[in-house]
């Protein structure tokens, strides 16, 4: 029997989040984003060596940061170098649920030129989440036109 290269239910790319307080982060993701905990491998001292959650059709791996192993979290790094994009049916409701669960607003929800209604929050563990609902199909030429118009408006050119 041949084993598939990508496990059933996974995609080619799976985010892996390192946090200070993985158990609390998993609880936040369940409350804020409706995540489902798939599995958890705790160490003897209660840290999470590896856990997996599922939001919608996507898996996210989560573990406690372990500096001695060279694995840092946003709070130990002083910020992030990446963010997560979360598509949902109702951006306004999920964004508000994340705020109510303890996230901090980074960017308010707005309709974007590329066809999404989107806002960005920072979770209590330092990770940025852009939450969006796709509201308009915009072809590449129109995206470029809208982007150029926005950049011109920002620079004050006509």
TrEMBL record:
Species, as recorded: Abyssibacter profundi
Superkingdom in the source lineage: Bacteria
Gene3D superfamilies reported for this sequence: 3.30.720.110, 3.30.720.120
One Pfam family this sequence matches: Glyoxalase
Name of the protein: Glyoxalase
Domain VOC: 9-134
